[in-house]
Structure formats: C-alpha cells, structure tokens
C-alpha cells in the first residue's frame, strides 16, 4: 500500500502529507527557503545550522 497523499520533500527527503501543506512540494517553509536560496545562487543554507564546510571565511571580495 502506497502512502497516498504523501509527498517526498525534494530538500530533506522526508515524506510529509502535502494535504493542507502551504509549502508543498516542500515539507516546510524551511525547505522552501532552502530551495529558494539555491535558485538565488546561494549555497545550501539552513537556518540554525552551520554550513558543512568552512571554506567561506566571511570575507567579501569586491
Ligand atoms: Zn523538507
């Protein structure tokens, strides 16, 4: 039996019910924002979590 009404979030791969979910196809606003960040050319940036690598020292090149 398949999980009807469930949608796998493309960001975190968790299955969530998309019904009554305003953020679909994402599971939450957080994942939606992550996806938007990717579109904006940002690296994976998860609020409240640190990036996996520390290659960005915070200095900005102009
Ligand atoms: Zn998600």
Question: Which features does this protein show?
Answer:
alpha+beta; 18% helix; 1 helix; binds zinc ion; 62 residues
Structure description:
It is elongated and about 50 Å long. It has one helix at residues 29-39; strands at residues 6-8, 15-17. Strands 1-2 form a two-stranded antiparallel sheet. With 62 residues, it is of the alpha+beta class. It has a domain at 6-39: Erythroid Transcription Factor GATA-1, subunit A (Erythroid Transcription Factor GATA-1, Chain A). Zinc ion binds next to loops.
Q: How is this fold's topology laid out?
A:
Elements: E1 6-8, E2 15-17, H1 29-39
Antiparallel strand pairs: 1-2
Zinc ion binds next to loops.
- Ions, cofactors, ligands: which are bound? zinc ion
Large-scale geometry: elongated
Number of helices: 1
Secondary-structure element string? EEH
CATH class annotation of the domain at 6-39:
Alpha Beta
Compute the number of strand runs: 2
The computed structural class is alpha+beta
Assembly type of the chains comes to single chain
CATH topology of the domain at 6-39: Erythroid Transcription Factor GATA-1, Chain A
> CATH superfamily of the domain at 6-39, called what?
Erythroid Transcription Factor GATA-1, subunit A
Strand order of the largest sheet: 1-2
Give the termini separation: 56 Å
Q: Whole-number radius of gyration?
A: 15 Å
Question: What low-confidence regions span 5 or more consecutive residues with pLDDT below 50?
Answer: none
What is the annotated CATH architecture of the domain at 6-39?
Answer: 2-Layer Sandwich
Integer average pLDDT: 77
